[in-house]
Amino acid sequence: MVWGLLPMLLGSKGFTLTQIGTVAAVYPAVWGLGQLITGPLADRLCKKDLLFWGMLLQGVVLLAMLFTDAYPAFLLLAALLGAGTALVYPTFLAAVAEYAPLPQRAHSVGIFRFWRDAGYAIGALLTGLLADAFGLATALAAIGG
């Protein structure tokens, strides 16, 4: 959902295309590299705690994006959003794999991935509808909440 809203939010705040591209690139860069650390953490720490703190960090960052106009702040927020996503993304799969009974593990992971990926598509559509009906800030606040 953020992939579509972030460039529009930054554009509405007067950022250049280079700045928008840089902020938009920081998020997946931190997310991808962060998983090299958070993936193994999910094997050592409580998965529920990692999921909680990762989701909370993502929500707080998204809400904070509504209240800043400074480019350096957006770079920091994008990095924090990536860190939150890195905490959550590999941990969800690890949790499903760990808690599913061995004979059902592949089936459970497949069901999880189906609904997760369907959620991306449905979430993107709903976010677009929210943004069209109530504005960009409302859509971002809904995602953050």
TrEMBL record:
Q: Which UniProt keywords apply?
A: Cell membrane, Membrane, Transmembrane, Transmembrane helix, Transport
Claim: Metal-binding is one of the keywords in the record = no
Transmembrane region positions? Answer: 20-38, 50-67, 73-97, 118-143
Membrane topology, from the record? Multi-pass membrane protein
Q: Where in the cell is it found?
A: Cell membrane
Domain Major facilitator superfamily (MFS) profile as annotated: residue spans: 1-145
PANTHER family, alphabetized: INTEGRAL MEMBRANE TRANSPORT PROTEIN (PTHR23517:SF3), RESISTANCE PROTEIN MDTM, PUTATIVE-RELATED-RELATED (PTHR23517)
- The identity of this protein, by name, is MFS transporter
Give the lineage: Bacteria, Pseudomonadati, Bacteroidota, Cytophagia, Cytophagales
